[in-house]
Specification:
- By secondary structure, the chain is of the alpha/beta class.
- It contains 9 helices and 11 strands.
- It has a 6-stranded parallel beta sheet, sandwiched between helices. The chain has a 3-stranded parallel beta sheet with strand order 3-2-4, with helices on both faces.
Length: 279
């Protein structure tokens, strides 16, 4: 059983990016908008650390969690329209009183997270400017581990906005057969799918959801989940039991997360090079 080191792969991606960006006369700047999300502060710091390593600009706009939707829309619109900000993300999840339609303020050419409906639509129509970073991180990990997806059976747990909904078409594109499990899937069906799967990717935010009884011997388990359990960061997999049967598992933290941050900045760089860099 191999525990995949996501930090090493993330550093490799960032090293390659730094080499490319260092030759540019101008540098991209990522604007991060958060809404009183203390639980997300570690993720924001990871992004800032990566930006500093790449010598990219980084600006954090933090507003109170109870900011009105109208005021937030106005502020986000100003952030997006600023020429200083070449990429903009809104740290998820949003407060209940803020509708996700507010994300449509971000145009695709400044949307490295594929948050807006337009960017999502472009993805599903095969016209995406970039791939969703966390989902792309899953496939960069599988590629790094030399796992050929053609003809494999994959199961995706979760249909979330940032990761789950993108994974199925990305698996199909790479020649894998894929099944999707969500909250409406009965447990017997879940076991039927998961016990046949060569690859399981989970992105539900439910700790200890994936257990050893749900996987076959030698399966690959990519844990893209995030939650807090007993005051500690946890993934979706019950790693102590799963690692007894899995051929490869990604840890939480230190697996998909850092690779996702690196892929985010790869998107920031791609969008900047295409739309903002004048050579």
């Amino acid at each position: 059983m191999h525990i995949f080191n996501g930090k090493e792969l993330a550093q490799e991606i960032l090293d390659n990016l730094k080499s490319a960006i260092s030759s540019w006369s101008k540098k991209p700047r990522l604007a991060v908008v958060s809404l009183g999300q203390e639980s997300q502060s570690a993720f924001i710091k990871q992004k800032e650390k990566a930006a500093n390593f790449l010598a990219c600009g980084f600006k954090h706009f933090n507003y109170a969690a109870d900011i009105s939707a109208a005021e937030l829309r106005g502020r986000l619109n100003k952030i997006v329209k600023s020429r200083l900000n070449t990429a903009v993300i809104v740290q998820m999840p949003l407060p209940e009183h803020v509708n996700s339609s507010i994300l449509n303020v971000i145009p695709p050419e400044k949307d490295p997270d594929l948050l807006s409906d337009r960017a999502v639509g472009m993805f599903f129509n095969g016209r995406a400017l970039v791939e969703p970073p966390t989902a792309a991180a899953v496939f960069r990990i599988l590629e790094s581990a030399n796992i050929d997806l053609a003809g494999k059976k994959a199961v995706v747990f979760g249909w979330g906005r940032l990761t789950g909904r993108f994974l199925a078409p990305m698996f199909l594109k790479r020649g894998a057969a894929v099944s999707v499990v969500d909250e409406h899937t009965g447990f017997d069906a879940v076991l039927e799918f998961s016990r046949q799967a060569d690859i399981i990717v989970s992105a539900t935010g439910q700790p200890k959801l994936i257990t050893a009884e749900m996987i076959k011997q030698g399966a690959v388990v990519v844990d893209a989940g995030f939650s807090m359990l007993d005051g500690k960061i946890a993934g979706d997999a019950d790693s102590e039991s799963v690692k007894q049967k899995a051929a490869l598992i990604t840890p939480v933290p230190g697996g998909v997360g850092p690779v996702g941050v690196a892929m985010l900045f790869e998107n920031v760089a791609k969008l900047f090079e295409r739309f903002h860099l004048i050579t």
